[in-house]
Amino acid sequence: MDTQFIQGARYLLRFDDMCPTMDWSLWDQVEGLLVEAGVKPILAVIPDNQDPRLLVAPPSPVFWDRVRSWQARGWSIGLHGYQHTYVNKDPGILRLNRKSEFAGLGYSEQVEKLQKGLEVFEREGVHADAWVAPAHSFDWVTVSALSALGIRTISDGMALSPYQDRQGNLWIPQQFANMRPMPFGVWTFCYHLEDFTPKAMVTFRKRLKQLGPRMVSLQDVAGMGNRPQSAGDRLVGLLRQAVSGLRRLKR
Ligand SMILES: [Zn+2]
Predict the structure, then answer these.
(1) Topology of domain 3-250, per CATH?
(2) 135 CA distance to ligand 1 centroid (A)?
(3) Domain map of the chain by residue range?
C-alpha cells in the first residue's frame, strides 16, 4: 500500500467486553503489542458483567487495578453498558444488531441502569471517557440519559470523522471491525478478543505496524468534532454497507 494514500487518515483502536473473566493470556499479548506501538486505545469496560458468553477465564482479582492503570496511562475507558445482558430485540439508532440492553426502554429505567454502572466506576476510581453500547444498540432516550449523567461522548456511528449531534453530544464514529488503510477521515476499528484466532493475530500485528504511526487517542480527536453531521458522513454508511456486501460475496 502506498503510504501517501493513507497520509490524511487517522485511526483509533477500540477493544470491547473488558471484564474480570476475559481471556487474560490473550489480552496480555495484545496489551504488550499496543504498548510497544505506543497506541492509546479505547477500552470498553463492562461495570458488572452478567453475560455468560464472556466467562472465559477465572475472574481476575486485580481487574480494577488493571483498569485504573490503563486510564493512568492515558488510555480511554468506555462505559460498556451495565451488565451486558440483552433484554429485547431493539436494534436502536444504528440498526446493526437486533438485541439491546438499553434501546426501547423508558427514560427512568435507562437512567437507573446507567447510574448503577457509573456507581461501579466511581467506587473503583474509574472515569467514563465515553459511552460504548453493547451490540451498538442504544436510542435517543439513552443519549439523553447519558447526557443528563454527564457523558457527552459516544464511540459509535457511521461518519467520516467526529461530529456533534443537535444536543451537543460528540460522536466519534466506529466504522470497521478490523484495521485497514483509508485515504482520509477518522476511523475506529473495534476488536473483540474472541475473534483473535492465530491467523487474525498475525494480521493484527501486521496492520498495527502499518497503521500504528497514524493512530490517535480519544482525547486527540475530541477537539475535531466541532461540526454537524454532513452528507459525506452518510456516504460512509453506504460505503460500509458496500464493504459488508463484498465480504458476503467473497464467502
Ligand atoms: Zn460487548
Answers:
(1) TIM Barrel (3.20.20)
(2) 6
(3) 3-250
